[in-house]
Amino acid sequence: GHYDTGGFEHYLLKEISEQPETVARTLRGRLDERFHIAHLGGLNMDARETRSFRRVKIIGCGSAYYSGQIGAQLIEELARIPADAEPASEFRYRNPVVDPDTLYVAISQSGETYDTLAAVQELKRKGGRVIGIVNAVGSAIAREVDGGIYLHAGPEVSVASTKAFTSTAVAFALLALHFGRVHDLSPADGRRIVDGLAKLPDQIEEILKQGDRIRDFARKYAGRPSIMFVGRVRGYPVAREGAQKLKEISYIHAEAYPASELKHGPLALIGPEMPTVAIVPDDELLDKNLTTLGEIRARGGNVLMIGHREPDAKLADDAIVVPKNEIELDPILLTIPLQLLAYHAAVALERDVDKPRNLAKSVTVE
Ligand code: AGP
């Protein structure tokens, strides 16, 4: 169908800006305000089966894998089912044990990524139960899986994934709620998540209003050769996605580390040349994260903090404050400023924003 940049300078900015609507579309018809559950008919799974899994293994490539890391944390926190994510490209080559008590979840925006498709086919060959979280309806991966969740985010044209990433995280929140409510997630916690999910579109809109401010920070930091991204637990997959986005479209070197690992090595990189983007959710790790910021500043490193409150000037040079939701859902909101940061850095450096060098929108070959 007809699809253009709709008055935006790039598809990427259009797709970032669409997220209030695309997140709403991923949620549409799936939240039950009465029983605080999620309706996910596409899973094709009865109640007995939904209760039967002992583990969840999530696979995907690149940004899909990072959104899967957010998903694994959501499933562990809300459903208390052990879950982890792994790059599909690695999984398919290491002859993994295919466990009958594990639910496998394959993530793909395009539904055509060859490594992810090959991993799904290998799983199915060995009797694994696989569901998909996919954007492109009727795509190869969507056809191969036993059921799943469509994102309904609409076509994503820009090579860098943005709206598919946030919609995937939202789909995982729905899945975690769905599993949680047949395990031991209380009705009160179910309501908390249902209400939190419903608030996301308006909160994303609030973040988008800070675009000019984020552009100023992007211009300030775009001249640096390398940028460190750090986050703890819920903030870590967000940091990884932020670094990936920046690398992909601005070609600025970026590293993502768990904030807790800095002192085990990469702190040696920190100094006036290397600024840090710190993801600081307002959760039980807030104090630990603030201590880390102090350690970075003490080595002369500049800090741009992405969090939910204005930091002390001693701890951060700059800050982007985003609205607060439930702690489990905050990673979704904390991702949005990083997309805008990468976008504006790429524009400032006059990169080919929608078609970065050496990359394809979907890697359909080995
Ligand atoms: C994201 O910005 C990248 N272009 C890339 O990592 C992408 O997410 C990955 O190739 C997976 O694509 P898929 O979701 O279409 O399978």
Topology:
Layout: H1 11-17, H2 19-27, E1 31-32, E2 37-38, H3 47-52, E3 55-60, H4 63-79, E4 83-87, H5 88-91, E5 102-108, H6 114-125, E6 129-134, H7 140-144, E7 148-150, H8 163-180, H9 187-208, H10 211-221, E8 226-231, H11 235-250, E9 253-258, E10 276-280, H12 286-298, E11 303-307, E12 318-321, H13 330-348
Parallel strand pairs: 3-4, 3-5, 5-6, 6-7, 8-9, 8-10, 10-11, 11-12
Antiparallel strand pairs: 1-2
The structure holds 2-deoxy-2-amino glucitol-6-phosphate (AGP).
Radius of gyration over C-alpha positions, nearest whole angstrom: 20 Å
What is the string of helix and strand elements?
A: HHEEHEHEHEHEHEHHHEHEEHEEH
Q: Helicity range of the residues?
A: 40-55%
Assembly state here? single chain
Total of helices:
13
The order of strands across the largest sheet is 4-3-5-6-7
Parts with pLDDT < 50 across at least 5 consecutive residues: none
Main beta-sheet strand count, sense and barrel state: 5 strands, parallel
Question: Are any ligands bound, and if so which?
Answer: 2-deoxy-2-amino glucitol-6-phosphate
Proportion of β residues?
Answer: 15-25%
Shape category: globular
The secondary-structure class comes to: alpha/beta
Number of strands: 12
- Could you give the distance between the termini? 29 Å
Report mean pLDDT, rounded to a whole number.
96
